[in-house]
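sry for the spam today, last one i promise. struct tokens for design, 446 residues
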């Protein structure tokens, strides 16, 4: 993987500007005298009340985080007794025009050296050299590879249909999926399988890391993935990981046969499947040490389109499973139905009015010379991100983010801007009852 620890001149310039802004906030907090303004103070209280449900969710997740480590240790002892690694695994790789990275993806799966391994590549009507590269690779590796390799070449029908075709060929206990632009860590499969320590655990999400980190847009995604996936540890404590992305997902084959094929009507078929599994009463978990590297979009247009698909697909999924909201069924986790899902929708409402919220917050800060709330927020975010890096299984890979953490509060405003455009475009499509197709972008490769 390309070494990107040395920042470019553009990144250094941007970083310098962000540090100047951050240092200025601390300077103003230390030198200015706070002025009273009753109207703005009331507005700030109102904003705090608006944000309280979302803040409460984060507080609960932060409290739950230590329990993830405790359960991991208990699982490790249990797995030694039960030999959970004896489960056989089928890895499905759907590919559409993935000539840039498909061979590296295949090789990374083979390099896991998992004993009972089946690999199924599904060429979903690629128009580039994907077929030629895969065919030649299979021919060359047939005698050397211990894994069973199967190859399907289909007419283009979409990722969900490709996955469903591959499921009919899969024969092993655990079904894993990985995108054609990803690289598996050597222990990704074995560390994933460990989490299937009881029959009720039906799906496990792996830890996805953005592997390209030379451009500003890529570093922002690296930071975003680090923070987002870290909180899945808390969701895992409550057996309620409802977003299990297809880049690193694992399922019990018998559960997939029970709940049915991947949905072809929803653009985020992976989220729909994990939510359907939770609705059926099964448990889902997160494997922090089961790492898969993915290629994040390297330009803003592609990133905006990717987030539109994610946002639109989540709305489709939440509409489909609206019966889960505030469900009183004993088979459904209350953490999922009373906290995670309702706050997910409420957070979209907050995002919709975020410009107003930020305007009130910064107006109060500047007019009243009260910079301490902002200083507290910056300090808290810096501390949390630093701890996330320290506790991540690939902390050396993320060490470039240590210098980014003090200015992350500004970078997340950029993320929110991307998310806002995705929300606006999603709501517009839902209002007009328009569908959305998969967006494609040019791969650079990891």
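last one done:
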């Amino acid at each position: 993987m390309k070494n990107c620890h040395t920042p470019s001149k553009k990144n250094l310039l941007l970083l310098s500007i962000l540090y100047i802004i951050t240092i200025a906030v601390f300077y103003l907090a230390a030198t200015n005298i706070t002025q009273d303004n009753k109207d703005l103070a009331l507005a700030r209280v109102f904003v705090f009340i608006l944000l309280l449900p979302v803040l409460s969710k984060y507080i609960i997740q932060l409290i739950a985080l230590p329990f993830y480590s405790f359960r991991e240790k208990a699982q490790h002892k249990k797995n030694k007794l039960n030999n959970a690694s004896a489960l056989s695994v089928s890895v499905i790789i759907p590919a559409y025009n993935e000539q840039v990275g498909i061979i590296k993806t295949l090789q990374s799966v083979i390099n896991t050296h998992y004993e009972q391994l089946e690999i199924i590549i599904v060429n979903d009507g690629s128009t580039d050299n994907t077929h030629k590269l895969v065919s030649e690779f299979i021919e060359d590796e047939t005698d050397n590879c211990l894994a069973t390799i199967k190859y399907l070449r289909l007419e283009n029908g979409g990722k969900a249909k490709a996955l469903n075709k591959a499921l009919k060929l899969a024969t092993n206990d655990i079904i894993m999926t990985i995108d054609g632009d990803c690289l598996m860590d050597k222990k990704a499969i074995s560390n994933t399988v460990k989490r299937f320590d009881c029959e009720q655990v039906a799906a496990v999400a792996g830890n996805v890391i953005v592997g390209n980190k030379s451009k500003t847009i890529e570093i922002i995604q690296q930071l975003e993935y680090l923070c987002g996936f870290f909180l899945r540890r808390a969701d895992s404590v409550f057996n309620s990981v409802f977003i299990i992305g297809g880049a690193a997902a694992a399922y019990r084959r018998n559960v997939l046969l029970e709940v049915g094929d991947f949905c072809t009507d929803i653009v985020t078929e992976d989220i729909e499947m994990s939510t359907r599994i939770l609705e059926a009463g099964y448990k889902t978990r997160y494997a922090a040490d089961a790492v898969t590297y993915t290629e994040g979009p390297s330009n803003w247009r592609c990133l905006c389109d990717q987030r539109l698909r994610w946002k639109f697909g989540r709305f489709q999924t939440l509409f489909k499973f609206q019966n889960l909201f505030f469900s009183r069924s004993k088979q459904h986790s209350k953490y999922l139905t009373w906290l995670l899902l309702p706050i997910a929708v409420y957070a979209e409402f907050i995002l919709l009015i975020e410009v107003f919220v930020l305007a009130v917050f910064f107006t109060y800060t500047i007019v009243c010379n009260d910079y301490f709330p902002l200083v507290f927020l910056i300090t808290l975010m810096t501390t949390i991100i630093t701890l996330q890096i320290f506790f991540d299984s690939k902390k050396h890979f993320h060490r470039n983010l240590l210098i980014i953490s003090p200015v992350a509060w500004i970078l997340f405003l950029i993320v929110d801007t991307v998310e806002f455009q995705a929300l606006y475009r999603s709501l517009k499509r839902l209002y007009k009852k328009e569908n959305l197709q998969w967006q494609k972008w040019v791969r650079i490769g990891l």
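The beta strands are 89-95, 117-124, 148-154, 174-177, 183-184, 201-210, 249-252, 283-294. ok im logging off now
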